[in-house]
Amino acid sequence: MPVQYRPRVLMIVHDPWIVPDKTRLHQHMGWHDPYALAQQYIADIHTASHGLVAYQIVRALDAPWFPAKIDGFRYTSETFLRQWATQAMHQPDALDYRKRIEQFYLLTKLARDEYDEVWVFSFPYAGEYESVMIGPTAFWCNAPPIICPDAVRNTVMMGFNYERDVGCMLENFGHRVESIMAHTYEKNAHLHNLWEEFIRYDLTSPGAAACGNVHYAPNSTRDYEWGRSGAVLSTCDRFLDYPASANAPARRVTAAEWGGGDMRAHHIWWLKHLPHRAERSAGEWGNWWRTVLLLDEDPLFAE
After folding, report:
1. How far is CA 12 from CA 38, 140, 168, in A?
2. What are the angstrom distances between the C-alpha of 105 and each of 14, 122, 218?
3. What is the reported pTM?
4. Is the separation of the CB atoms in 258 and 217 below 8 Å?
5. What b/e readout covers 242-260, taking b as 16+ CB neighbours within 10 angstroms?
6. Backbone angles phi, psi at 88, to 5 degrees
7. Residue 87 exposed, middle or buried by CB count within 10 Å (0-12, 13-18, 19+)
8. What are the pLDDT digits (tens) for 95-118?
9. Can you spell out the DSSP letters for 115-181?
Protein backbone atom coordinates (compact mmCIF):
# COMPACT_ATOMS: atom_id res chain seq x y z
CA MET A 1 0.00 0.00 0.00
CA PRO A 2 1.55 3.36 -0.98
CA VAL A 3 2.35 6.03 1.60
CA GLN A 4 -0.58 8.42 2.05
CA TYR A 5 0.59 10.53 5.01
CA ARG A 6 4.00 12.12 5.51
CA PRO A 7 3.64 14.07 8.78
CA ARG A 8 6.45 16.56 9.24
CA VAL A 9 8.12 16.45 12.64
CA LEU A 10 9.90 19.15 14.58
CA MET A 11 12.13 17.17 16.94
CA ILE A 12 13.52 18.67 20.17
CA VAL A 13 16.17 16.73 22.10
CA HIS A 14 16.87 17.57 25.75
CA ASP A 15 20.02 15.49 26.28
CA PRO A 16 22.16 17.62 28.62
CA TRP A 17 25.92 17.57 28.84
CA ILE A 18 27.25 15.87 31.97
CA VAL A 19 30.17 17.51 33.74
CA PRO A 20 33.02 16.56 34.18
CA ASP A 21 33.09 13.55 31.82
CA LYS A 22 31.78 15.64 28.89
CA THR A 23 29.23 13.11 27.71
CA ARG A 24 25.54 13.46 27.05
CA LEU A 25 23.10 12.29 29.72
CA HIS A 26 21.92 9.29 27.68
CA GLN A 27 25.54 8.13 27.27
CA HIS A 28 26.44 8.70 30.91
CA MET A 29 23.45 6.70 32.09
CA GLY A 30 23.63 3.97 29.43
CA TRP A 31 20.22 4.96 28.07
CA HIS A 32 19.01 4.96 24.46
CA ASP A 33 20.24 7.30 21.74
CA PRO A 34 17.21 9.53 21.02
CA TYR A 35 18.05 9.80 17.31
CA ALA A 36 18.16 6.00 16.97
CA LEU A 37 14.87 5.73 18.86
CA ALA A 38 13.27 8.19 16.45
CA GLN A 39 14.24 6.07 13.45
CA GLN A 40 12.97 2.87 15.09
CA TYR A 41 9.69 4.59 15.89
CA ILE A 42 9.28 5.87 12.33
CA ALA A 43 9.86 2.35 11.01
CA ASP A 44 7.40 0.78 13.47
CA ILE A 45 4.64 3.30 12.69
CA HIS A 46 5.18 2.66 8.98
CA THR A 47 4.80 -1.09 9.61
CA ALA A 48 1.83 -0.72 11.95
CA SER A 49 -0.01 1.55 9.48
CA HIS A 50 0.35 -0.95 6.63
CA GLY A 51 2.72 1.49 4.95
CA LEU A 52 0.31 4.43 5.03
CA VAL A 53 2.35 6.66 7.35
CA ALA A 54 5.93 7.78 6.76
CA TYR A 55 6.99 10.34 9.35
CA GLN A 56 9.63 12.86 8.25
CA ILE A 57 11.88 14.70 10.69
CA VAL A 58 12.17 18.05 8.96
CA ARG A 59 14.13 19.72 11.73
CA ALA A 60 15.96 18.41 14.81
CA LEU A 61 16.84 20.91 17.52
CA ASP A 62 19.61 20.02 19.97
CA ALA A 63 18.54 21.51 23.32
CA PRO A 64 21.19 20.21 25.75
CA TRP A 65 19.69 21.64 28.92
CA PHE A 66 17.25 20.69 31.63
CA PRO A 67 13.94 22.47 30.84
CA ALA A 68 12.11 24.52 33.45
CA LYS A 69 9.48 23.02 35.70
CA ILE A 70 6.15 24.72 36.25
CA ASP A 71 7.53 26.39 39.41
CA GLY A 72 10.68 27.61 37.63
CA PHE A 73 13.01 24.93 39.01
CA ARG A 74 15.72 23.53 36.72
CA TYR A 75 18.00 20.57 37.34
CA THR A 76 21.71 20.86 36.75
CA SER A 77 23.73 17.81 35.78
CA GLU A 78 24.93 17.56 39.39
CA THR A 79 21.51 17.90 41.04
CA PHE A 80 19.84 15.55 38.56
CA LEU A 81 22.39 12.77 39.11
CA ARG A 82 22.34 13.22 42.87
CA GLN A 83 18.55 13.16 43.07
CA TRP A 84 18.28 10.32 40.57
CA ALA A 85 20.57 8.20 42.79
CA THR A 86 18.12 8.52 45.68
CA GLN A 87 14.95 8.86 43.57
CA ALA A 88 14.18 12.02 45.53
CA MET A 89 13.16 13.96 42.44
CA HIS A 90 11.90 17.53 42.44
CA GLN A 91 8.20 18.17 42.97
CA PRO A 92 6.11 19.43 41.35
CA ASP A 93 7.41 17.40 38.43
CA ALA A 94 5.25 19.11 35.79
CA LEU A 95 6.92 20.92 32.90
CA ASP A 96 6.29 24.55 31.96
CA TYR A 97 4.74 23.92 28.54
CA ARG A 98 3.89 27.56 27.91
CA LYS A 99 7.54 28.46 28.33
CA ARG A 100 8.54 25.75 25.87
CA ILE A 101 6.03 26.99 23.30
CA GLU A 102 7.49 30.49 23.60
CA GLN A 103 11.13 29.41 23.79
CA PHE A 104 11.01 27.44 20.55
CA TYR A 105 8.57 29.81 18.76
CA LEU A 106 6.30 26.85 18.16
CA LEU A 107 3.21 28.88 17.26
CA THR A 108 5.21 31.01 14.84
CA LYS A 109 6.69 27.93 13.19
CA LEU A 110 3.23 26.37 12.99
CA ALA A 111 1.87 29.52 11.33
CA ARG A 112 4.67 29.24 8.79
CA ASP A 113 3.59 25.65 8.13
CA GLU A 114 7.03 24.32 9.10
CA TYR A 115 5.81 21.17 10.87
CA ASP A 116 2.78 19.03 11.64
CA GLU A 117 3.69 17.75 15.10
CA VAL A 118 6.45 18.02 17.70
CA TRP A 119 8.47 15.18 19.23
CA VAL A 120 10.39 15.94 22.41
CA PHE A 121 12.98 13.49 23.70
CA SER A 122 13.79 13.94 27.38
CA PHE A 123 15.08 12.16 30.44
CA PRO A 124 12.92 10.55 33.16
CA TYR A 125 11.28 13.07 35.51
CA ALA A 126 11.45 15.77 32.87
CA GLY A 127 7.76 16.38 33.54
CA GLU A 128 6.67 15.47 30.01
CA TYR A 129 3.21 14.28 29.09
CA GLU A 130 3.22 11.25 26.77
CA SER A 131 1.21 13.36 24.37
CA VAL A 132 -0.54 16.70 24.62
CA MET A 133 -2.60 18.69 22.15
CA ILE A 134 -1.90 22.37 21.60
CA GLY A 135 -4.10 24.76 19.64
CA PRO A 136 -7.23 26.89 19.46
CA THR A 137 -9.63 23.94 19.83
CA ALA A 138 -7.29 21.45 21.49
CA PHE A 139 -8.88 18.63 23.48
CA TRP A 140 -7.76 15.90 25.84
CA CYS A 141 -4.99 13.83 24.23
CA ASN A 142 -3.82 11.70 27.16
CA ALA A 143 -3.24 15.02 28.92
CA PRO A 144 -5.13 18.26 29.55
CA PRO A 145 -5.23 20.41 26.40
CA ILE A 146 -3.10 23.53 26.07
CA ILE A 147 -5.49 26.06 24.60
CA CYS A 148 -3.69 28.62 22.43
CA PRO A 149 -6.26 30.88 20.73
CA ASP A 150 -3.57 32.43 18.53
CA ALA A 151 -2.46 29.10 17.04
CA VAL A 152 -3.45 28.61 13.39
CA ARG A 153 -4.45 25.01 14.05
CA ASN A 154 -4.16 22.15 16.51
CA THR A 155 -1.00 20.09 16.81
CA VAL A 156 0.22 17.26 19.04
CA MET A 157 3.42 17.27 21.05
CA MET A 158 4.71 13.79 21.82
CA GLY A 159 6.94 13.31 24.88
CA PHE A 160 9.42 10.44 24.66
CA ASN A 161 11.65 9.24 27.50
CA TYR A 162 14.99 7.96 26.17
CA GLU A 163 15.58 5.91 29.30
CA ARG A 164 12.96 3.59 27.78
CA ASP A 165 12.74 1.83 24.43
CA VAL A 166 10.59 2.16 21.33
CA GLY A 167 7.87 -0.04 22.82
CA CYS A 168 7.08 2.74 25.28
CA MET A 169 7.04 5.26 22.42
CA LEU A 170 4.41 3.13 20.67
CA GLU A 171 2.45 3.07 23.91
CA ASN A 172 2.47 6.88 23.95
CA PHE A 173 1.13 6.89 20.40
CA GLY A 174 -1.47 4.26 21.31
CA HIS A 175 -2.84 6.47 24.08
CA ARG A 176 -2.96 9.33 21.60
CA VAL A 177 -5.07 7.10 19.33
CA GLU A 178 -7.37 6.21 22.22
CA SER A 179 -7.96 9.86 23.12
CA ILE A 180 -8.59 11.09 19.58
CA MET A 181 -10.84 8.19 18.57
CA ALA A 182 -12.92 8.46 21.74
CA HIS A 183 -13.30 12.22 21.22
CA THR A 184 -14.27 11.77 17.57
CA TYR A 185 -17.04 9.30 18.33
CA GLU A 186 -18.28 11.40 21.25
CA LYS A 187 -18.75 14.27 18.78
CA ASN A 188 -20.79 11.94 16.57
CA ALA A 189 -22.83 10.27 19.26
CA HIS A 190 -25.78 9.68 16.93
CA LEU A 191 -23.77 7.05 15.02
CA HIS A 192 -22.93 3.50 16.00
CA ASN A 193 -19.73 3.55 18.06
CA LEU A 194 -17.37 1.19 16.27
CA TRP A 195 -14.51 2.36 18.47
CA GLU A 196 -16.21 0.97 21.58
CA GLU A 197 -16.45 -2.37 19.81
CA PHE A 198 -12.80 -2.25 18.79
CA ILE A 199 -11.50 -1.80 22.36
CA ARG A 200 -13.51 -4.59 23.96
CA TYR A 201 -11.59 -7.26 25.90
CA ASP A 202 -12.80 -10.42 27.55
CA LEU A 203 -12.49 -9.26 31.17
CA THR A 204 -15.11 -6.54 30.65
CA SER A 205 -16.96 -8.09 27.68
CA PRO A 206 -16.97 -11.86 28.33
CA GLY A 207 -17.17 -13.82 25.11
CA ALA A 208 -17.20 -10.59 23.05
CA ALA A 209 -13.59 -9.41 23.01
CA ALA A 210 -12.23 -7.57 19.99
CA CYS A 211 -8.77 -5.93 19.98
CA GLY A 212 -8.62 -4.60 23.52
CA ASN A 213 -6.80 -1.37 24.27
CA VAL A 214 -3.20 -0.29 24.79
CA HIS A 215 -2.99 -1.75 28.31
CA TYR A 216 -5.31 -4.74 27.90
CA ALA A 217 -4.95 -7.38 25.19
CA PRO A 218 -8.10 -9.34 24.29
CA ASN A 219 -7.37 -11.93 27.00
CA SER A 220 -5.74 -9.76 29.69
CA THR A 221 -7.00 -10.05 33.25
CA ARG A 222 -4.93 -7.13 34.59
CA ASP A 223 -3.17 -3.98 33.42
CA TYR A 224 -0.12 -4.51 31.18
CA GLU A 225 -0.72 -8.27 30.98
CA TRP A 226 0.25 -8.84 27.34
CA GLY A 227 1.63 -12.37 27.80
CA ARG A 228 -1.32 -14.38 29.10
CA SER A 229 -1.63 -17.72 27.27
CA GLY A 230 -5.34 -18.31 27.96
CA ALA A 231 -7.47 -18.32 24.81
CA VAL A 232 -10.55 -16.14 24.41
CA LEU A 233 -13.02 -15.51 21.61
CA SER A 234 -12.18 -12.33 19.70
CA THR A 235 -13.55 -10.46 16.70
CA CYS A 236 -10.14 -8.82 16.05
CA ASP A 237 -10.10 -10.10 12.44
CA ARG A 238 -13.13 -7.94 11.75
CA PHE A 239 -10.98 -4.80 11.95
CA LEU A 240 -7.80 -5.92 10.22
CA ASP A 241 -9.03 -4.94 6.74
CA TYR A 242 -12.20 -3.04 7.60
CA PRO A 243 -14.73 -2.65 6.00
CA ALA A 244 -13.95 -5.61 3.70
CA SER A 245 -13.32 -7.78 6.77
CA ALA A 246 -16.35 -6.50 8.73
CA ASN A 247 -18.08 -9.89 8.70
CA ALA A 248 -15.06 -11.96 9.75
CA PRO A 249 -16.10 -14.53 12.38
CA ALA A 250 -14.86 -14.54 15.96
CA ARG A 251 -12.08 -16.96 16.76
CA ARG A 252 -9.97 -17.98 19.74
CA VAL A 253 -6.80 -15.95 20.27
CA THR A 254 -3.86 -16.06 22.69
CA ALA A 255 -0.81 -13.91 23.40
CA ALA A 256 1.11 -15.86 20.76
CA GLU A 257 -0.56 -13.53 18.22
CA TRP A 258 0.90 -10.35 19.72
CA GLY A 259 4.37 -11.40 20.82
CA GLY A 260 3.81 -13.47 23.95
CA GLY A 261 4.25 -10.55 26.33
CA ASP A 262 6.53 -8.26 24.35
CA MET A 263 5.27 -4.68 24.66
CA ARG A 264 6.53 -3.51 21.28
CA ALA A 265 5.07 -6.52 19.46
CA HIS A 266 1.69 -6.10 21.17
CA HIS A 267 1.45 -2.42 20.31
CA ILE A 268 2.33 -3.02 16.65
CA TRP A 269 -0.29 -5.81 16.53
CA TRP A 270 -2.89 -3.51 18.09
CA LEU A 271 -2.12 -0.59 15.78
CA LYS A 272 -2.20 -2.87 12.74
CA HIS A 273 -5.84 -3.58 13.53
CA LEU A 274 -6.88 0.06 13.27
CA PRO A 275 -9.05 0.28 10.13
CA HIS A 276 -6.84 1.68 7.39
CA ARG A 277 -8.80 1.48 4.12
CA ALA A 278 -10.28 4.50 2.30
CA GLU A 279 -13.62 2.78 1.67
CA ARG A 280 -16.69 3.93 3.58
CA SER A 281 -19.16 1.78 5.49
CA ALA A 282 -22.40 3.05 7.05
CA GLY A 283 -21.24 6.61 6.45
CA GLU A 284 -17.84 6.18 8.10
CA TRP A 285 -14.41 6.23 6.57
CA GLY A 286 -12.58 2.95 7.05
CA ASN A 287 -9.32 4.76 7.77
CA TRP A 288 -8.74 5.72 11.39
CA TRP A 289 -5.16 6.76 10.71
CA ARG A 290 -6.34 9.90 8.97
CA THR A 291 -8.55 10.67 11.98
CA VAL A 292 -5.55 10.43 14.30
CA LEU A 293 -3.27 12.50 12.06
CA LEU A 294 -5.58 15.15 10.52
CA LEU A 295 -6.60 16.93 13.68
CA ASP A 296 -8.47 19.91 12.29
CA GLU A 297 -10.76 17.91 10.06
CA ASP A 298 -13.48 15.51 11.06
CA PRO A 299 -12.19 12.92 8.61
CA LEU A 300 -13.91 9.89 10.09
CA PHE A 301 -17.25 11.17 8.86
CA ALA A 302 -16.21 13.69 6.18
CA GLU A 303 -18.02 13.71 2.89
Report:
1. 11, 22, 18
2. 16, 19, 43
3. 0.95
4. yes
5. bbebeeeebeebbbeebbe
6. -100, 70
7. exposed
8. 999 999 999 999 999 999 999 999
9. -SEEEEEE-TTS---SEEEEETT---SSS--EE-TT-SS-EEEEEEETTS-HHHHHHHHHHHHHHHH
